[in-house]
Recover the amino acids of this structure.
């Protein structure tokens, strides 16, 4: 009986405590609920939408679907933000970074639409992420382009798939409209977040 | 920047917006991984089968808690995989029915044990995983033994283990004593290493089989070489009818497993196992809360500098900076603005990733400062101390904000220097003097008292902090117990030393309400790399007096050296304003070193509270995300007999950041110190605001370790 209470305490202690005071140089282990009560969650950075366009983003790995709004433009990069201030940085339809998607894509060396359409023999993609301890991880992939085979995107668009081999196999898919823009796509973010699927109408 | 190898793929997680209230770690259940057969944990909390160990180890960095019970025997074990090969386990053992059959003063026998395991070989195509281990290496030795075990996996579904045990694990089915007689050793007060016994005496084989049925269930069978001489033999707390144990393990999630077993032909057992790894957050990283973004300046160059001469414009800029930094948790202490550069001193929240905070501050500045300001100098401040000066160019932020590998590229262009005071900086109005206070519940516990291994109090605590001017702080707290049983301890410790800590139960009994502390502290930075602190007042619950400290810590150095001297007098048990007669001068010279592989060491040499002289060594393993697991030990000139049970002071400390558990950005973490025993030898003074942890939080070493989050 007692040892099981002890386990319970150990768990509660690990889960909750803020070790009472730093004065716990003792068996007396002040696990301070007091500190729990003080937990300060940094409020999301206030974001103001640039215009009223939006994209609908799906994250199949988490079963989520949510709209995002443009909050910053820097040259050809647009940063989209969700209500809870998760962000995607997209350059000409190509995802190059995420923030707030769990294990984020911190930065990427992606490809371009002309490279996809040109059908070059192979190209390199680099994904920079953080591992579980917040240490940077750089992953390099070798990718080839071929006509898309799966259903899902707009039927009028030109469907291309990009198969990449590196530390794992990933497949990005793009539906490119008559103006040479990516109208719809499924793109890899990270191990933790998986893929995002979105259409760039209006963006 | 260091690049780490790719970690094994983890699966997506569905836990978003998880309420804090549901923060029981075992709840983070995720479907188990496919294919791979993971090393399981035995009833005694080490990698193994049921009661027998195996040749494997856990994934590097794994912290596990196992609560294993069969018959009258209960064990709760905390283990840490210190390096890929080395692991340590601390175990608390209770054996019930101790005096049921054979008379004894104890109804339940309690003991503690510490095991060390070293993996000699990892599993290969033909090579089995091989581990050698020492059980109960510094305890009373009643649980002690040594073993070498080998484990091989076949076809991803079957694991076979075979081993040889000495001591406890050589007590049944012995095949001889190849290395001589295992001499009985008088363990005295326990806590010492019994080197002479290792691998001596009878050796016995043990073996086991694991068969993974599917992702949820694994069957286990083993042949045990532990005869339970004391528990089953002498004390007859259970009847060991057979050496064979059978069990089934059920995987609830990635972090939780349950095992049920039929043990020794006599009794049933149950074990719950929780595994945490700093590398795998239950949430899988920070959710939501996107950071501030860089705002590109219009045009190329030639921005107007006229604003600097317009005092209204300068005033307006100051107000904008402070307002824009506030949502990130920053308070602007002071600012020095010129046409081309800005130095902003910000009070930083504790416990956040330091590089992330600097990055956020820099990007906020890019949004609000006039375009002519190209050079940013950010000075993080804590307790009025300027911790470092991080200088960067605004154009680099603009150029790299979407560049591949931006963290390393940015780091190359940033300089981290020591910070001094800036007489020209203009203080933010209303920062000093400032009173902050809090009123909150507290929880306080006492572990491992043989009369009652768990006692606890819940009460209310009023705390206040009055910052008179930068670096000068009056603070204190006062608490009142509501319910609890900490005051029921009847132990009357007798010590050969001045009773500086062993009277702690009297402080619980007579100290209600309690003046926890009331101090005036003065923090300063008298030199380029030198920090100082003087604290006067009721420093901690048992002592009051004067404490002075000096720390030498160059901002980009892995080495720091400190000196502390205190004159303190023991407080009355009622913990209000009066003192007892005992007073002492205590202090240490401390060396701190941060290694490149995430380990750090601290050595304190000096005089302790009871007047004893000696040294404390602390080794920690720290991760960039704030996880920290460490151990400490103190040896002084107090003979082991005088120290009493345990022989010398030692313990384990664990720190887990809340942000890791919740995926939300919070500055709090769970900090635990686990000491098997608290005695009077090697006891140190506990005083708030010691310099090293504060100063190193934003030094060049820590910033580099955490730099991966500069752009987060």
């Amino acid at each position: 009986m007692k040892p099981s209470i002890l386990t319970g305490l150990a768990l509660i202690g690990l889960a909750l405590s803020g070790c009472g005071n730093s004065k716990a140089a003792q068996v007396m282990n002040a696990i301070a609920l007091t500190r729990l009560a003080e937990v300060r969650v940094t409020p999301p950075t206030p974001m103001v939408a640039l215009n009223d366009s939006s994209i609908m983003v799906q994250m199949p790995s988490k079963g989520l679907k949510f709209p995002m709004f443009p909050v910053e433009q820097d040259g050809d990069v647009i940063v989209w933000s969700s209500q809870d201030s998760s962000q995607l940085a997209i350059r000409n339809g190509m995802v190059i970074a995420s923030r707030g998607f769990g294990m984020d894509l911190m930065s990427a060396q992606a490809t371009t639409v002309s490279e996809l359409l040109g059908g070059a023999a192979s190209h390199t993609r680099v994904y920079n992420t953080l591992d579980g301890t917040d240490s940077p991880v750089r992953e390099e992939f070798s990718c080839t382009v071929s006509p898309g085979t799966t259903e899902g995107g707009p039927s009028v668009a030109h469907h291309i798939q990009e198969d990449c081999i590196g530390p794992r196999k990933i497949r990005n898919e793009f539906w490119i409209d008559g103006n040479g823009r990516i109208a719809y796509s499924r793109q890899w973010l990270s191990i933790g977040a998986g893929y995002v699927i979105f259409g760039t109408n209006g963006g | 920047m260091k690049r780490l190898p790719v970690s094994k793929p983890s699966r997506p997680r569905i836990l978003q917006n998880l309420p804090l209230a549901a923060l029981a770690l075992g709840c983070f259940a995720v479907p188990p991984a496919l294919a791979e057969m993971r090393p399981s944990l035995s009833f005694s909390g080490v990698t193994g089968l049921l009661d027998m160990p195996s040749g494997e180890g856990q994934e590097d960095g794994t912290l596990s808690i196992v609560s294993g019970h069969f018959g009258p025997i209960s064990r709760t074990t905390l283990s840490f995989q210190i390096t890929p090969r080395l692991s340590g386990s601390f175990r608390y053992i209770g054996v019930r029915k101790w005096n049921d059959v054979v008379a004894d003063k104890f109804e339940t026998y309690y003991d503690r044990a510490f095991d060390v395991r070293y993996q000699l070989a990892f599993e290969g195509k033909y090579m089995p995983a091989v581990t050698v281990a020492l059980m109960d290496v510094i305890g009373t030795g009643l649980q002690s033994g040594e073993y070498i075990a080998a484990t091989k996996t076949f076809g991803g579904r079957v694991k076979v283990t075979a081993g040889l045990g000495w001591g406890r694990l050589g007590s049944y089915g012995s095949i001889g004593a190849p290395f001589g007689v295992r001499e009985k050793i008088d363990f005295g007060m326990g806590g010492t290493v019994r080197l002479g016994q290792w691998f001596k005496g009878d050796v016995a084989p043990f073996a086991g089989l694991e068969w993974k049925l599917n992702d949820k269930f694994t069957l286990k069978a083993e042949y045990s070489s532990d005869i339970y001489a004391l528990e089953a033999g002498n004390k007859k707390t259970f009847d060991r009818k057979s050496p064979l144990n059978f069990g089934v393990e059920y995987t609830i999630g990635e972090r939780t497993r349950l095992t049920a077993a039929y043990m020794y032909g006599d009794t049933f057992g149950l074990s719950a196992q929780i595994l945490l790894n700093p590398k795998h957050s239950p949430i899988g990283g920070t959710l939501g809360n996107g950071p501030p973004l860089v705002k590109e300046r219009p045009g190329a160059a030639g921005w107007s500098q006229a604003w600097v001469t317009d005092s209204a414009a300068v005033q307006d800029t100051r107000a904008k900076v402070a307002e824009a930094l506030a949502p990130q948790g920053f308070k602007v202490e002071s600012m020095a603005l010129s046409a081309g550069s800005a130095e902003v001193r910000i009070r930083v929240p504790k416990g956040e990733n330091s590089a992330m905070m600097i990055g956020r501050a820099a990007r906020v500045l890019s949004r609000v400062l006039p375009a002519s300001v190209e050079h940013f100098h950010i000075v993080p401040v804590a307790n009025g101390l300027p911790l470092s000066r991080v200088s960067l160019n605004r154009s680099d932020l603009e150029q790299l904000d979407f560049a591949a590998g931006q963290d390393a590229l940015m780091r190359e262009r940033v300089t981290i220097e020591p910070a001094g005071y800036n007489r020209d900086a203009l203080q933010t109005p209303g920062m000093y003097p400032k009173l902050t206070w809090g009123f909150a519940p507290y929880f306080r516990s006492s572990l491992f008292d043989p009369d009652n291994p768990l006692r606890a109090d819940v009460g209310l605590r009023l705390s206040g902090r009055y910052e008179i001017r930068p670096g000068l702080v009056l603070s204190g707290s006062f608490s009142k117990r509501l319910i609890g049983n900490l005051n029921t301890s009847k132990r009357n410790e007798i010590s050969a030393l001045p009773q500086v800590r062993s009277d702690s139960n009297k402080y619980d009994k007579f100290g209600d309400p309690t003046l926890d502390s009331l101090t005036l502290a003065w923090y300063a930075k008298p030199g380029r790399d030198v920090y100082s602190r003087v604290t006067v007042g009721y420093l901690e619950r048992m002592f009051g007096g004067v404490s002075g400290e000096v720390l030498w810590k160059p901002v980009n150095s892995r080495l720091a050296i400190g000196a502390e001297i205190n004159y303190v007098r023991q407080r009355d048990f009622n913990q209000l304003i009066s003192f007892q007669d005992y007073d002492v001068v205590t202090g240490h010279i401390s060396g701190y070193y941060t290694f490149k592989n995430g380990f750090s060491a601290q050595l304190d040499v000096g005089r302790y509270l009871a007047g004893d002289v000696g040294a404390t060594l602390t080794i920690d393993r720290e991760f960039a995300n704030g996880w920290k697991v460490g151990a400490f030990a103190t040896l002084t000139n107090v003979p082991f007999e005088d120290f009493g049970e345990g022989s010398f002071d030692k313990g384990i400390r664990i720190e887990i950041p809340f942000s890791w558990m919740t995926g939300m950005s919070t500055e709090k973490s769970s900090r635990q110190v686990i000491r098997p025993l608290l005695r009077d030898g090697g006891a140190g003074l506990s005083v708030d605001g010691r310099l090293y942890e504060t100063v190193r939080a934003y030094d060049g070493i820590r910033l580099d370790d955490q730099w991966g989050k500069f752009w987060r």
In short: Residues 1-44 of chain A have pLDDT under 50 and may be disordered. Helices of chain A lie at 2-16, 33-37, 113-118.
